[in-house]
Design goal:
Number of strands: 14
Order of helices and strands: EEEEEEEEEEEEEHEH
Radius of gyration: 17 Å
Structural class: mainly beta
Largest sheet: 9 strands, antiparallel
Helix content: under 10%
């Protein structure tokens, strides 16, 4: 058990290239700003993580570390909310399920994972499970809500394109983690 909790608003990550392990990519900052009067939804960046032997896209909502004597708990954790790949984006070849690109955009399509009570599905995961920063683009319908902006688009939209064109590392990360 623990009695105190450290809370951070951001962390920086740096990784080696998946194509050439001698190349170190530039450091990226991942934010998890709590809700405030200026940002009622807060702001959480999206990342690719390993979770229960799978690779998943999540939004980081909080960065925490329990203050405890238990070594396995004395590390940073993230509270995250999950996205899942759209069911329309799967193909089965030789009994193996593959995620496929959305037509026209050539990007993967994800949606927020929702519980039966309509709340977003979340969990606590170790900070060390983060593999890659991921950029999501809201999937707009015929009209964009006038209230949507960069601070609330992850909360107002429900479907997103994964920007696998952001850089070569993201493209290879998404393809290799299937």
């Amino acid at each position: 058990s623990f009695h105190h909790l450290h809370v951070w608003q951001k962390f920086r990550m740096q990784q080696r290239s998946t194509q050439d392990s001698c190349i170190v990519s530039p450091a990226r900052t991942v934010q998890a700003l709590l809700p405030s009067s200026l940002m009622p939804f807060g702001r959480g960046d999206t990342v690719l993580i390993t979770h229960e032997s799978r690779y998943l896209i999540v939004q980081v909502k909080a960065i925490i570390q329990p203050v405890t004597e238990t070594p396995r708990l004395n590390q940073p954790f993230l509270y995250v909310e999950f996205f899942s790949f759209s069911h329309s984006s799967f193909s089965i070849i030789n009994d193996i399920c593959f995620i496929t690109l959305a037509p026209v955009t050539d990007m993967f399509l994800v949606k927020c994972r929702i519980r039966l009570n309509h709340e977003l599905l979340g969990d606590i995961v170790p900070l060390g499970s983060v593999r890659q920063v991921i950029e999501l683009i809201p999937k707009f319908g015929r009209e964009v809500p006038s209230s949507m902006n960069c601070d609330n688009s992850l909360q107002l939209a429900r479907e997103f394109f994964v920007n696998n064109f952001a850089d070569k590392e993201t493209f290879h990360a998404i393809l290799s983690y299937q």
